[in-house]
Design goal:
With 119 residues, this protein is mainly β. The chain has a single domain, classed as Sandwich (Jelly Rolls). 0% of the residues lie in helices and 58% in strands. The radius of gyration is 15 Å and the shape is elongated.
Length: 119
């Protein structure tokens, strides 16, 4: 099924996902194959919740069998946050796509992702 016409969507459902980021790439937002929807990522906020040294972050757009890097080994300082996707840089997930995150140290980074499901 094709993605919807974004000039005249029928519905727009707001969503927020949260997760502690693991060392293996894990999806925080997905758009299932044949969903008939588009997912618009509005913001992605990452926080280093440890008091220890900076932790590296990877963000990728997973399509088919490959992850395409949006951010690679970005250092998030202790006690700081980073916004790799926001109002100035948004992303659409097509059918079958996923937005995935991984960290250099498990459970040191937490993520909040705000998005819209358009149909």
């Amino acid at each position: 099924m094709a993605s919807p016409n974004l000039f005249a969507p029928t519905t727009c459902t707001a969503k927020t996902s949260v997760q502690a980021i693991a060392t293996t790439a894990t999806a925080i937002a997905t758009n299932a194959a044949s969903s008939g929807t588009a997912v618009k990522i509005r913001s992605l906020i990452i926080a280093n919740v440890t008091g220890t040294a900076a932790v590296t972050l990877n963000v990728d757009l997973y399509r088919g069998t490959k992850g395409y890097r949006l951010a690679y080994q970005i250092s998030v300082p202790a006690g700081a946050s980073l916004t790799p996707l926001g109002s100035d840089l948004q992303l659409y997930l097509e059918e079958g796509d996923a937005l995935r995150l991984s960290a250099g140290v498990a459970a040191s980074l937490e993520a909040v992702c705000s998005y819209e499901v358009l149909s």
